[in-house]
Design a protein that fits this description.
It comes from Kaistia geumhonensis. The chain contains ten helices and 15 strands. With 335 residues, it is an alpha/beta fold. Helix 1 packs across helix 9, helix 6 packs across helix 8 and helix 8 packs across helix 10.
């Protein structure tokens, strides 16, 4: 397969801002976009140079010139759309969280496996040069044995992205499934470790509606014994993001790295002082789509697999349960 041809399931901001360009940068084509609103689909296609638009998922999936789909609809729609895509023999890149229920996420991944198509989760942060440099430094033993980590991922959700994320519980809104799942994947990737249990507290700071939390803090215990803290929010207008890992022989301090942009800094601090770690500043989504195209061609795996999506969803669901009950909740993935 020389040119991989894509259909977009959802006329989304993330596709417009990042994924369409990443597909094209990797030699792919976007041939059609689907939205339940026909007018939105047509306007989106015209604005983004996409030759076809439809309001029918079946019509999109029946096209012979669609090899893969990118699903970026609201969270409660992912399951059925992914299952339909697998039945149609289309490769699938799905936004996180994969579903609202762990068993549904397993169904999606299993269906893709049975159909012989690639299934990937769009966890963009593991494609950041900063996080890849941190992963390498830890693997090389530059901070000794990792003992603790902290993630600062409290941001301000701009008005044009609010909507269902803050007022639609049935759509899977709220800060946990929107941001905390990214923390889980980033921690897993950088540390090469697995979260085992969580405790959590949520906050309603004035943005969330209908019982949805707009901030959460968690404490996580990992398989290795490492402990981690995370802070996620939609309500922090002026906070910078960051990621720290502290080990027996040093610390990695990263700033402004929990973002869709290839920016920020990483510093190693140890007994000999402070050392800046350089890293690749390539586009996160271009890297992700390059890996996906490679996987479709039988060359390796996607940057984040369906199993990675299951694991981050399991983490998010455990955080939600821990915040609800006030107790410690195990992260049960079913894998």
């Amino acid at each position: 397969m020389t040119t991989i041809r894509w259909g977009l399931v959802g006329a989304s901001n993330i596709a417009r801002e990042h994924v369409i360009n990443a597909i094209r940068a990797n030699g792919g084509e976007v041939v059609s976009v689907m939205s339940a609103d026909a007018g939105r689909a047509n306007a989106y296609a015209a604005a983004n140079g996409i030759p076809s638009a439809t309001d029918s998922l079946d019509a999109l999936l029946s096209r012979d010139d669609v090899d893969a789909v990118y699903i970026s609809t609201t969270n409660e729609l992912h399951r059925d759309q992914a299952l339909a895509a697998a039945r149609a023999g289309k490769h699938i890149l799905c936004e996180k969280p994969l579903a609202l229920d762990l068993s549904d996420a397993h169904r999606m991944v299993d269906a893709a496996r049975a159909a012989g198509v690639v299934f990937a989760t769009n966890h963009h942060l593991r494609n950041a040069g900063a996080h890849r440099a941190m992963r390498t430094a830890i693997a090389e033993g530059r901070i000794g044995r990792p003992l603790a980590a902290r993630v600062f991922h409290a941001v301000f959700l701009p008005p044009f992205l609010q909507g269902w994320r803050i007022n639609a519980p049935a759509a899977g809104g709220g800060v946990i499934l929107d941001i905390a799942v990214h923390d889980a994947d980033t921690l897993r990737f950088v540390l090469q470790d697995e979260p085992e249990s969580v405790v959590a507290m949520t906050q309603s700071g004035g943005m969330g509606e209908g019982g949805l939390a707009d901030a959460v803090m968690t404490t996580v215990t990992f398989r290795s014994g490492l402990i981690a803290q995370t802070h996620d929010a939609f309500t922090a207008k002026y906070a910078g993001t960051g990621f720290e890992v502290h080990g027996t022989e040093g610390s990695l301090i990263a700033r402004d790295v929990m973002t869709q942009k290839p920016v920020g800094s990483v510093v190693l601090r140890n007994e000999s002082g402070e050392h800046v770690i350089d890293f690749d500043r390539g586009d996160l989504y271009v890297r992700a789509l390059g890996a996906f195209h490679g996987a479709v061609r039988g060359e390796g795996e996607p940057a984040a697999t369906g199993e990675d999506g299951i694991r981050s969803l399991a983490f998010g669901l455990a955080v939600a349960e821990a915040a609800k009950t006030g107790g410690t909740v195990k992260v049960e993935t079913g894998l």
